[in-house]
Amino acid sequence: AHLDRVAAVDGDLHAFLHTDASASLAAARAIDERRAAGETLGELAGVPLAVKDVLVTTDMPATSGSRILEGYRSPFDATAVARARAAGLVNIGKTNMDEFAMGSSTENSAYGPTHNQWQHGRVPGGSGGGSAVAVGAFETPLALGSDTGGSIRQPAALTGTVGAKPTYGGVSRYGAIALASSLDQIGPCARTVLDTSLLHDVIAGHDHHDSTSLRHEWPSMAAAARDGVADDSLRGLRVGVVRQLMLDGVQPGVKARFDEALALLTAQGAEIVEIDAPHFEYAVAAYYLILPAEASSNLAKYDSVRFGLRVTPDGGGTVEDVMSATREVGFGAEVKRRIILGTYALSAGYYDAYYGSAQKVRTLIQRDFANAFAQVDVIASPTAPTTAWKLGEHAGDPMQDYLNDATTIPANLAGIPGLSLPVGVAEEDGLPVGLQLLAPAFEDARLYRAGAAIE
Ligand code: GLN
């Protein structure tokens, strides 16, 4: 049924970059046969899963939304995908994304944009717009995404779906095509908080292939979500509202839905506490130095020799000519912009002024969170300051995209978990609004509990 749905609607939406219906059907039938043979399978066995194209799998190509990886196929599965397969989930396709996960609208994909399922011609957010729309348009019940600065949470908000960024190190990054390694985190997307928690449980846990993977006994996120719907589950919960996250640019309809969500929390016994995080106003600036710096290093491996595309200049040339011709054609404008920014920020003479300062700001933001979480259990904010904008509306002005990340970025700089869930639509445009909940590192379960309570 999901493959039929993809065939019917994805021509318009373009949530998927690769599908292989017959292979997916065969995988689903194999699960049916195991069940028929009396094997006890997990509760997600046979459920379709869409996979952001940033994760490598053996059964389909992986491009990370870039021309430079066109035709690339991995010899191994990303750990999150391997764990999903072991639980019986069936990969039904790879989803569209901004090139190398750089962007907030999925318009930076080298393969064309994804349309928001709420309104053709509107962006789905990014970078994981494909996964969010696939879930929101009922093409799949579950999807995987990656969140380096909001790429799971912000598209969830703009498409009226749910998405979680786990604690940094909670889910293995093995097989995730790296953007900025100190910020990247793999996480689940779905239509409900409970569905999201079920996928979270499947993919979480230590992996020796990822040196930053945490050795931690994670409690069941699904159990927390199920607890959340019980009466009184929010009694005594202290919810922080950070002044600096209530940006001047917040759209009126977003603010209205957020205030309503706070009222709902209060009605269920939570206590709202206003808090200050004085360094959050520098988060976007710090992020857009740290991310390009790390990305410029991670993307150096696309040299035309080891992976994907190779462009040889007319009449041949040296190895360097081939590399530069390949990178010229293979990378899009935003990727080039960030590589140039990153190499500049890391260069001798500028390192202390830019990268070094940004790392200091990152520490101050981590301290702001530590101070905040000494006073509250969770932090609430709008996930994004606006609803979905029109395709092309931010063209030529990347700053507008960057500013849309102001609410999601602080969590990545601090490595803490975040969840976005839908809280209705804005009156002015009828488009969905997301509520973001943040918790201290390791306290992901708290988000599912509170999220399920107010869903
Ligand atoms: N909008 C952010 C950026 O462009 C999101 C990145 C991400 O989470 N992958 O960097």
**Biggest pleated sheet:** 11 strands, mixed
Instruction: Work out the helicity level.
Output: 25-40%
Q: Do you know the CATH architecture?
A: Alpha-Beta Complex
In the predicted model, the low-confidence regions spanning at least 5 consecutive residues are none
Instruction: Note the total helix count.
Output: 15
- Average pLDDT level: 96
H and E order: HEHEHEHEHEEHHEHEHHHHEHHEEH
Give the tally of structural domains: 1
Oligomeric composition of the shown chains:
single chain
CATH topology: Amidase signature (AS) enzymes
CATH superfamily: Amidase signature (AS) domain
Bound molecule kinds, no repeats? glutamine
Q: What is the β-strand count? A: 11
Based on secondary structure, the structural category is alpha/beta
For the largest sheet, list the strands in their spatial order. 1-3-2-4-6-5-10-11-9-7-8
**What is the percentage of strand-forming residues?**
5-15%
